[in-house]
Description:
This protein folds into 2 domains: 2-39 and 172-362; 49-151, abc type-2 transporter like fold, CATH 3.40.1710.10. The two termini are 29 Å apart. The protein is mainly α. Helix 1 packs across helix 11, helix 12 (253-278) packs antiparallel against helix 13 (281-299) and helix 16 (322-331) runs antiparallel to helix 17 (335-362). The protein has helices at residues 2-15, 18-38, 61-67, 80-88, 102-107, 121-146, 153-168, 173-188, 190-202, 205-210, 216-244, 253-278, 281-299, 301-304, 312-318, 322-331, 335-362, and strands at residues 49-55, 72-76, 94-98, 115-118. Strands 2-1-3-4 form a 4-stranded mixed sheet, with helices on both faces. Helix 3 (61-67) links the parallel strand 1 and strand 2. Helix content is 71%, strand content 6%.
Amino acid sequence: MDFLRLVWMQLKMNCKNIGTLIMLIVVPIATTIAIVYFLPGGNDNTGKTPLVFINHDQGDLGEAMLATLDTAEIILENDIDDALTKLENNEAIALYILQENFSDLLQAGTIPVIESYQLEIDVVSLFENQMMTFMQQQAKRGLFQQQGIDFTEMEDMRLIDVEISRYEERETVAELMPVLMSIYYMFLTSGTIAGKLFQLKSNNVLKRIITTNTSNFKIITSFCASYFLLQTIATFVVFMIFDFVFGFDVGDPLPLLVTIALMSMISIGISIVIVRLCKNEAMVVQVSQLVGIVLFFAGMVSLFKEVFQLPTVVLILAQLSPFYWANEALLFGNIFPGIVILALIMLVILTAGSLKLEKFIQD
Length: 363
């Protein structure tokens, strides 16, 4: 009962902080609306990459290949000048021209040459890999048919399904934007948690608690639990608004809720560790916010690692960010090892914060 009273007392005080509530509810909603509905490539095309195609193919395989590019916004043009104009105006990042005998060559077992004009080579490499996979499979089918071997449609498309299945998940980025923004602002408001710890210490509240029968574990747990409840409730409110008002679908709620809970505890643990290291309230708030920003943008590498050819050292450093594993779990459905690693990060950080807290209080 003492633990619950501590949690309830802290939660009531937290709810009186209007600035924190605005950062946890109002700002994520406003940011999500701005990104999804007003920025280019937002709600109109669900973040798909615009590609221009001039399809001269007299058969059906050219159109079939375009249908496999689910993560691209296909723009069809008939005139080369109009297509190049779209590139010049940055309305697309690449132009591809399919020749008239595209289907005939594939059916004969030959991979045709596709004429292309590109603005961003690293981005289009994903789509070119998908197109090459399609052409290789169709050319293989053509060779099999020439030898009188039955090459079934299911076997024909098996490798293509494997190749593109991972990228189809990225279409949900827009609908998961409330999640990403809510978690991001959780970390930005961690400075409030650090500042609150300093206030409790300066008022000798923590010292009075630690001299009672209340254990060190109860102190750290009740403090974390109060902010955890506040962040969870605020995030739930954001989800309900986007669900009922904007019609967003965040998919399977279980990995979503588990990821949010773990990220909330990680943000709280980081703020406590920073409090112990800095010993200055103004510096603690600034460092906490800076750490949140750095971790967020480092974790965004998980969104682009399959599109851009990033240096190995960048990928390794990005995996130190909890946002990296949160994105893996939410956007790509990688519950394992994503959520497992988040749980380990949470345990390490909270343990470090708890071990340092008693010395910090008694100093």
